């Protein structure tokens, strides 16, 4: 059984970097005769653009990337997150934290949380975030592309589950949704590799089975800057979907035969499903994409 997914956030138009994650997760699912779901990760209203929520499915369709079942929206899943938070709290694995970003910076000078409030036993107050008590050591795990990932030289830190303003963290939401949708295989960008240890900790704490992970290289400009919505990466050009699809496939180690490059996206995808092999995807954190 194989259930995969693509889970973009509607913070800007889809760009070449998003296409890579969509294509890789789609092909890996289809090559395994699996299902592929589309989930819109809209848990962060201040950063989201309403019109993008409708634009994402349209763009994917223009690239021939058709998903199974209904589109799911994280904004519909608050109850699910609340229940999971309650379960973690019952297990004694949460605590309230009232540290400001500034105080944290002054103390530890890094983005890493220093578990400062662990022993303070603060009562949940409106101005507190809820953190996960990460008392499970990191264990090495195997990524299908990047090989053995061993974070043993890093101490787990107590990451946020629910922010001070009530918004859910990416960590909590993504684990709850992948579990609820019975996702067996996660294929996504290398920029999320370091988050995976946290996800594995949550799965372990909740007694849920851990999906298999594959992290594809991310596209960067010649100067090493990641293509992202925050960096105003060029939106996908749906007029030339077939050519962009071929570029994405080449980036992922699958070169489409010249005679096929000008055919329809459906034809190209059909070829790609037949030829997809994840071992051909380069085991690199990033690759320069010449056209960025
Ligand atoms: Zn704190």
Explain this structure.
This protein folds into two domains: 3-76 and 178-288, Rossmann fold (3-Layer(aba) Sandwich), CATH 3.40.50; 78-141 and 148-171, 3-Layer(aba) Sandwich (Rossmann fold). The protein starts with a strand and ends with a strand. The strands form five sheets. Strands 1-2-3 form a three-stranded parallel beta sheet, with helices on one face. Strands 4-5-8 form a three-stranded antiparallel beta sheet. A two-stranded antiparallel ribbon has the order 6-7. It has helices spanning 16-31, 50-62, 78-90, 101-108, 170-180, 196-206, 241-251, 265-275, and strands spanning 3-6, 35-40, 72-73, 94-97, 129-132, 141-143, 147-149, 160-162, 185-189, 212-216, 218-220, 286-288. With 292 residues, it is α/β, with parallel strands linked by helices. Helix 3 packs across helix 5 (170-180). Residues 5-235 form the Glutamyl/glutaminyl-tRNA synthetase class Ib catalytic domain. GO terms for molecular function: ATP binding; glutamate-tRNA ligase activity; zinc ion binding. It comes from Neptunomonas concharum. Its EC number is 6.1.1.-.
Core attributes:
292 residues, Rossmann fold, 2 domains, three-stranded antiparallel beta sheet, 32% helix, 15% strand, elongated, binds zinc ion
Second CATH tier, the architecture of the largest domain: 3-Layer(aba) Sandwich
Q: pLDDT under 50 segments (min length 5)? A: none
Q: Can you tell me the number of structural domains?
A: 2
CATH fold annotation of the largest domain:
Rossmann fold
Class per helix and strand makeup: alpha/beta
- Considering the protein shown, what is the CATH homologous superfamily of the largest domain? HUPs
Average residue pLDDT: 91
Strand content: 15-25%
Name the overall outline: elongated
Number of helices: 8
What strand line-up does the widest sheet have?
1-2-3
Rounded radius of gyration (Å) = 20 Å
Q: Could you give the count of β-strands?
A: 12
Present as ligands are: zinc ion
The percent of residues in helical segments reads 25-40%
First CA to last CA: what distance? 37 Å
**What is the CATH class name of the largest domain?**
Alpha Beta
H/E element string?
Answer: EHEHEHEHEEEEHEHEEHHE
């Amino acid at each position: 059984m194989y259930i995969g997914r693509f889970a973009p956030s509607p913070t800007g138009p889809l760009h070449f970097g998003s296409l890579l994650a969509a294509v890789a997760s789609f092909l890996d699912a289809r090559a395994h005769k699996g299902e592929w779901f589309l989930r819109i990760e809209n848990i962060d209203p201040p950063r989201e653009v309403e019109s993008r929520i409708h634009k994402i499915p349209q763009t994917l369709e223009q690239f021939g990337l058709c998903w199974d079942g209904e589109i799911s929206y994280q904004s519909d899943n608050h109850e699910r997150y609340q229940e999971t938070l309650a379960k973690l709290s019952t297990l004694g694995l949460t605590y309230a934290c009232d540290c400001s970003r500034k105080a944290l910076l002054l103390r530890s000078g890094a983005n890493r949380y220093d578990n400062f409030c662990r022993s303070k036993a603060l009562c949940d107050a409106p101005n507190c975030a809820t953190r996960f008590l990460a008392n499970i050591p990191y264990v090495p795990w195997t990524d299908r592309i990047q090989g053995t990932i061993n974070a043993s030289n890093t101490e787990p830190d107590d990451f946020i589950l629910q922010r001070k303003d009530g918004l859910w963290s990416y960590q909590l939401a993504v684990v709850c949704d992948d579990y609820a949708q019975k996702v067996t295989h996660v294929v996504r960008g290398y920029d999320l590799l370091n988050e995976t240890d946290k996800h594995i900790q949550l799965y372990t704490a909740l007694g849920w089975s851990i999906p298999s992970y594959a992290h594809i290289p991310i596209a960067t400009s010649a100067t090493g800057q990641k293509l992202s919505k925050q960096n105003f990466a060029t939106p996908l050009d749906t007029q030339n979907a077939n050519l962009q699809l071929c570029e994405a496939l080449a980036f992922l180690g699958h070169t489409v035969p010249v005679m096929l490059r000008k055919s329809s996206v459906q034809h190209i995808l059909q070829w790609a499903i037949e030829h997809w092999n994840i071992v051909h995807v380069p085991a690199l954190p990033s690759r320069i994409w010449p056209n960025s």
